[in-house]
Design a protein that fits this description.
CATH superfamily of the largest domain: Periplasmic binding protein-like II
Shape: elongated
Order of helices and strands: HEEHEHEHEEHHEHHEHEHEEEHEHHH
Structural class: alpha/beta
Oligomer: single chain
Number of strands: 13
Strand content: 15-25%
CATH architecture of the largest domain: 3-Layer(aba) Sandwich
Radius of gyration: 20 Å
Helix content: 25-40%
Number of helices: 14
Distance between the termini: 34 Å
CATH class of the largest domain: Alpha Beta
Length: 343
C-alpha cells in the first residue's frame, strides 16, 4: 500500500516540480507541501491568503500525515513538509539532507467524548486517561472516573476507545504526555507516532474520528482543539502538573509554550506536554514545518523562504484570528531568524 502511495506522490511531485511555469509573461512557481491533517484548515487558509498577495506562487497541500511527510522531505520529495512531532533522530542521521524543523503554531490535543444526557464537564487525570487508552478502565462508572467527577452521573456504559492510525502526529503528542504521567503506558504502548494501542478503533483522518464519535454513545477519542470546537464536541478538562484541572483553550496552550518553549537556542524539537505552570494545558505542542535547509533549485528555495517570512508575520495574525494559539514573541523571533536562513 505504501509503495502504491509513493508512486502516486512521486507522479504528483514530478508534475509540479518539473520547473517554474511561465504564465502571462511572468514566472510562476508551484510549491508542494505535505503534512498533517490536523493543521490542514489553517495551512489552506494561509495558502489562499498568500497566493492572493503573491500570485506568482502557488502551493499544493497534501495531508499525508506526519510520518509520511517527514519521509518525503528527507527523501527530497516536495518543497516543504510538516507534522506534529519532531522527526525521529534515527531518520535524521540516515539522511544526508539537512532539514530545519520550524514551529508553525501551537496546537492542543483534547480528549473528546460522547455521553448523551449526562450533564457536567468531565475531568480527567493523566493516569485515568492512560487507563482508558490501555483498556484498563472499561466503563464510564468505573470508580477511577466517578471519584474525579462526583457532580456527574456517569452511566454504566461501556467506553468505546477511538484513536488515530499509525504515523499520525496526534498519536505522538498524546502518547508523549501519557508516557510522562503513566509508567505503565510508557512500558505497554510507548511514545511515538505509532503507539502499540491495546484497544480501540483506528481512524486515518481526524474528521472521521470526530464524526464517528458523535454517533457513538460512550465513545472517547482525541483531536486538535480547533476541530473539536468547530464540531461542537464535548471536551474534558485535564489535570496539569500543578494539580489544576485546565480547560483546553488557546490561552492555556500558549501558557504551556511560554513555560516549556523558551529555550534560548534554535533547537525547537522541544516537548511542551505536562508543562509546569498553573495555567498550562498539559497536552500542548508545537506543530512543525519540515524545510530543506538548501533547496535543489535556487528559485524554489527563494519561493519557500518568501513564504516562510510571510508565515511568521501575516500568517501568525491569520492563525490568531482563526482561534489558534500562536508562537510566543520570544520563540517567534528565533524561529523567524532560523527560517530566514533557508536558501
Amino acid at each position: 500500500m505504501r509503495s502504491h502511495s509513493h508512486r502516486i506522490f512521486g507522479c504528483f511531485i514530478a508534475f509540479f516540480m518539473f520547473g517554474p511555469l511561465v504564465v502571462r509573461g511572468q514566472e510562476r512557481v508551484v510549491l508542494v507541501q505535505t503534512g498533517s491533517s490536523m493543521p490542514e484548515p489553517l495551512y489552506k487558509s494561509w495558502i489562499d491568503a498568500y497566493h492572493k498577495e503573491t500570485p506568482s506562487t502557488q502551493i499544493r497541500y497534501m495531508p499525508v500525515g506526519t510520518g509520511e511527510s517527514a519521509r518525503n522531505i528527507l527523501a527530497g520529495s516536495g518543497d516543504l513538509g510538516g507534522g506534529d512531532a519532531p522527526i525521529p533522530e534515527s531518520q535524521l542521521r540516515a539522511s544526508n539532507k539537512p532539514v530545519l524543523e520550524l514551529p508553525a503554531v501551537l496546537i492542543g490535543i483534547v480528549a473528546i467524548y460522547e455521553l448523551p444526557g449526562v450533564k457536567g464537564e468531565l475531568k480527567l487525570t493523566g493516569p485515568a486517561l492512560a487507563g482508558i487508552f490501555l483498556g484498563k478502565i472499561k466503563a464510564w462508572n468505573d470508580p477511577a472516573l466517578t471519584r474525579l467527577n462526583p457532580e456527574m452521573n456517569l452511566p454504566a456504559l461501556p467506553i468505546h476507545v477511538f484513536h488515530r492510525a499509525d504515523g499520525k502526529g496526534s498519536n505522538y503528542i498524546l502518547s508523549d504526555y501519557l508516557c510522562k504521567v503513566s509508567p505503565e503506558f510508557l512500558a505497554s504502548a510507548g511514545r511515538g507516532e505509532s503507539p502499540k494501542w491495546p484497544v480501540g478503533q483506528s481512524f486515518q483522518r481526524s474528521q472521521e474520528l470526530v464524526n464517528q464519535l458523535h454517533s457513538t454513545p460512550g465513545a472517547i477519542g482525541y483531536t486538535e482543539l480547533n476541530l473539536a470546537v468547530s464540531s461542537g464536541i464535548r471536551m474534558a478538562s485535564i489535570k496539569n502538573a500543578a494539580g489544576d484541572y485546565i480547560k483546553p483553550s488557546s490561552q492555556s496552550i500558549e501558557a504551556a509554550a511560554s513555560v516549556g518553549g523558551g529555550k534560548k537556542n534554535d533547537d525547537f524539537r522541544v516537548s511542551l506536554t505536562n508543562a509546569l505552570g498553573k495555567e498550562s494545558y498539559p497536552i500542548a505542542s508545537f506543530t512543525w514545518l519540515y524545510v530543506p535547509a538548501v533547496a535543489p533549485d535556487p528559485e524554489r528555495g527563494k519561493a519557500v523562504a518568501s513564504y516562510l517570512k510571510w508565515v511568521y508575520t501575516s500568517g501568525q495574525r491569520i492563525a490568531q484570528e482563526q482561534g489558534y494559539a500562536t508562537l510566543p514573541a520570544e520563540v517567534l523571533s528565533r524561529v523567524a531568524a532560523k527560517a530566514d536562513t533557508v536558501r
